[in-house]
């Protein structure tokens, strides 16, 4: 299998640098092919701007979306963007590895997303109609591939628990996992988060590797997060709100993950409705 | 009053550029003093790295936090970082204005946060003890100042409603409003979000200005979001989980905003407890 690791830390001798090396070794040792986009080493350009199109329309008002689309269609995207898109197309699995800075990814990684996720590549794909609102949230050019976050955090795990002051880690990561990875089609595996990184000595690092190693060994068998596909019937289109009969009375990020018993429930509901219908027809 | 607008859009002739100009004009016309950090125009450096310390320790392993602390304490921070910190100290109110790109801020603005929010300035402030876990989440160097987000989004407002596919806008913005603004002490006003920006013609822009103008006219009187202060008794320390008797049985970002009736409820609870105590004393 082909694995792309997109890695964002400024210091190779950091905990993150060691984790990145471990990931590469573990995967290569298991026979996989690994490419690393080491954004700091590559001096990745973070700011999306008109120079991302090698052939911009001179004097025109710069529109981030339309310019991105034009460059993508005309084959005039900046070379660094094209290279990263090709790595994404090559990969079977993509790992984004980063320290959590201010409850999100470092700027250099956000700039990778902003620039590589071109119109026509990661969004603006597919038709818009009354039943299909673009190939996104479960469909798209990256469908069939897997993705996983490997994240380090300085704080304690309790600070990221459901009632922790930072908010639940799954909610903090939702805009990335759902909005950046599931959006263009990735199956998103549960994240691997390493807490309290300031306290990791050699013994603790061995444990970090052991636990992360298990995740890497099961990359192809771990069940993805059950995010709901946009165009598979769960959402009203074009409002894109969850249908009222699903997760009734609930709101928030959590409702976009389907409940394991839901299929059974909705099959049951269909059966009841059919039975009601038959009853209605019989008594008509 | 002094207002700092931190603005992140690559095209001055964009909707965001027009909104930024409107904000400046409206505030100056009302007699306020405005500074704008136009990050694209400033060619703001996004990536936090060893060069952010003008006097780095040669050959040392770069630690983002400790290096930031050292540079802050020794007065050797990069000049661009110092300038932005001085603007923050000068401001009574800070507005972050940006287009929502991939459910977060553009990389260049995240890089402003990553670099300007130094250790000793925006975090790592205050003592840690059994009752006080640093001056943060409601305390800190920026306490007493106000902050507000002005955000544009291409999607429909229904996509950002409580049951919309993107997740509720308040949850998408929570890591910024709570994790970046409330953390170093800002009082955070409700965000001003402008949706479906691709469809804004001259008539719609007049309406945009009218609504935003009302928010700007009431910057100093609008009630902030009632985020709970970390060290005021609502959290168990050091776990930093919300005390079990508050928002009982609930979880997620929403529990970190106190309920308007809660003070009355807890006063009531105290009264009941006192009454129990008096009763216990009377019957002893």
UniProtKB/TrEMBL annotation, chains A, B:
GO terms for molecular function: NAD(P)H dehydrogenase (quinone) activity. Residues 1-215 form the Flavodoxin-like fold domain. The keyword Isomerase does not apply. It comes from the Bacteria. Keywords: Oxidoreductase. Signal peptide: none annotated. GO terms for cellular component: cytosol. The keyword Glycoprotein does not apply. Belongs to the NAD(P)H dehydrogenase (quinone) family. This is NAD(P)H quinone oxidoreductase. It comes from Advenella kashmirensis (strain DSM 17095 / LMG 22695 / WT001).
């Amino acid at each position: 299998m082909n694995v792309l690791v997109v890695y964002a830390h400024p210091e190779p001798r950091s905990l993150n640098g060691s984790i990145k090396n471990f990931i590469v070794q573990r995967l290569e040792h298991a026979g996989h092919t690994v490419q690393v986009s080491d954004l700091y080493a590559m001096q990745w350009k973070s700011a999306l701007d008109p120079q991302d199109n090698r052939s911009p329309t001179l004097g025109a008002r710069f529109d981030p979306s339309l310019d991105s689309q034009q460059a993508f269609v005309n084959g005039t995207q900046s070379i660094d963007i094209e290279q990263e898109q090709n790595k994404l197309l090559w990969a079977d699995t993509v790992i984004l590895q980063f320290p959590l800075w201010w409850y999100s990814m470092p700027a250099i990684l956000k700039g990778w997303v902003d620039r590589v996720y071109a119109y026509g590549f990661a969004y603006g794909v597919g038709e818009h109609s009354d039943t299909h609102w673009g190939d996104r949230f479960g469909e798209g050019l990256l469908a069939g591939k897997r993705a996983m976050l490997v994240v380090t955090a300085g704080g304690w795990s309790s600070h990221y628990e459901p009632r922790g002051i930072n908010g639940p880690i799954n909610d903090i990561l939702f805009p990335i996992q759902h909005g950046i990875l599931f959006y263009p089609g990735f199956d998103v595996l549960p994240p691997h988060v390493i807490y309290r990184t300031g306290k990791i000595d050699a013994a603790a690092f061995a444990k970090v590797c052991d636990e992360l190693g298990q995740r890497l060994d099961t990359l192809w068998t771990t069940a993805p997060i059950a995010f709901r596909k946009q165009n598979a019937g769960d959402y009203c289109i074009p409002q894109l709100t969850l249908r009222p009969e699903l997760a009734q009375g609930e709101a928030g990020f959590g409702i976009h993950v389907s409940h394991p018993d839901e299929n059974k429930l909705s099959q049951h509901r269909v059966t009841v409705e059919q039975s009601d219908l038959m009853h209605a027809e019989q008594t008509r």
